[in-house]
# Entry
Amino acid sequence: MCGIAGIVAGAGKAAPDLERIVAMISPLRYRGPDESGVYLDRRAALGHLRLSIIGIDGGGQPIGNETGKLWIVYNGEAYNYLELREELEAKGHRFTTRTDTEVLLHLYEEYGADFLSRINGQFALAIWDSGKEELFLARDRVGIRPLYYGWSREGSFLFASEVKAILAVDGSRELDLEALGQLFVFWTTLPGRTFFRGIQEVPPGHYLVVGKGESVPRPYWRIPFHAPEECCAFGLAETAEALRELLSDAVCLRLRSDVPVGAYLSGGLDSSVITTLIQRHCDSHLKTFSLAFQDGVFDESAAQREMVRFLGSDNRQVLVENGDIRRFFPETVWHCEKPMLRTSPVPMFLLSRLVREEGYKVVLSGEGADEILGGYNIFKEAKIRQYWAKCPDSSRRPLLLERLYPYIFRNPGRGRSFLQGFFAVSREQMHDPFFSHAVRWHAGERNLAFLAPDCLAALSQYRPMEELGRWLPDNFLHRDLLSRAQVLEMEIFLSNFLLSSQGDRVAMAHSVEMRHPFLDYRVVDFAFRLPAKWKVRGLNEKFLLRHAFRGMLPEGIASRAKHPYRAPISELFQGEVPLDYVDELLSQQSLKQSGYFNAEKIGRLYLKVKGAQPGAIGEFENMALIGALSTEILHRQFIAGFPLRRSSVLQPDLVRYGSL
# Structure
């Protein structure tokens, strides 16, 4: 995997110079420590940092075509590049490297923007046409690889793999209050938004052309929608076999590499399926990597040990203590470049460090299975609430929720009272297009009360639900309840948190590439052709996936209920903890100085969390506190902390010039 950046000078402006493009890529060196290169001409500058994985020798970027008219910088993998290369060679294209990068450049040369639909992979890329003076940016279908852009104060167009590269050459820094509002409602930003005013992200499945016309992201792919007559017409056994074959091929493609490939092993169904398929298709001995937690509530070590015995893999594990999460939280925010309502990215940051220490650059992971095959409690919760809405006065129907959240009901009186208040549903609510998520989003809206009065006033006319409604695809309302819930999870949370803060950003912090077989676009399309009953059968999640791999996995793993990946929050502030950045950032003086939060309310919440018994703090209070803390960290690092954290200025290994 790699880091990319670039500048296109505004009309009539001076050509971007070497110093400026080097300033952009220097802070991202961890994304590509193996090699660096730049391209310069009279309008554009492109920068690249390489993590060598495929075509290691002679694959330095930027790469040009035969005429020197087209130039590409690319962060990603096109897993089907061998097949694409063969197709292009038959059409007369000739190659000078063994990289997938050059294949994509020739593919663009052959098909234009339509080339994107032919790629099976994960990518963020930029292609500069020096003849047309036109820049083409694109991002993979589900948003595995990041790509940001904006306009500088003097009118230049800037793009990069991370926001900090843009901020390195553009001094305008301001936190976007609407994005902060979205964080507390949706738990992350909506597609295309960032927490920095004036900087946007190319949405998943979109491309952007910067030239003489209007620069607006355009979709080339959206989450599939299939009419009933287009959906799966096979029996259960045939469908399970088709899923096994598709996943096997997706895994095989993602094992293409000129360096060793490992895998994350959580002990859950998804990673167990992936590691089992790797074992069947990989010639070398399988190496796996796992997380263990000090707190047994979060730990899955027993299931991991069962899978390691079954696979015979060489497993490496990192034990995460609460103090580790507290200590590395600011470093994680620096790499994620966004506030967050969870601490779960920190253990993944530590796990990727272990991967790199073991000499690995590439790992396969199970992300995406829950979204496409029905693995989350929120899907089952929506199903129960739909059932409840048909008879809202029933006292028995809501009790089904006890099976989802048994920890709430240890005290039956208190638990059922909470259930009636939090999950209550009426027939009218069934007409809400966001029915599956609305109860959580409206609860999250209450945390907006922790914002400072000036911020609340600035947001008084902003309606985040309306913005979400404008973003969703036209066919959204034609989907069934489960499919709508899946779309919301994928459009909002998958790309902007799971694949970003918990994926690319913390992995690339240690120069590690993650690959996701469940997010192969063919697997995604297949999953959205399935009837809802084959995803969630009764209250059994991922029914088809379990059925397809039963007999290939240990029974204890195949039948094991989902254990959601979480990390401690309130526990980080309780007991004997050090006086450190937390107390300083959450002090009245600091909170009033930054101005985002009501200092008195956050102060009371902090005291409450510190003095509470373990497990006594509710989820939304936990999220409010960690959201405030991460926002304050972000402010110090990127807004108030001018200049950016100092990074050594690199000397590019390769400098190429066009017409100057």
Notes: The longest strand covers residues 70-78. The mean pLDDT is 93.
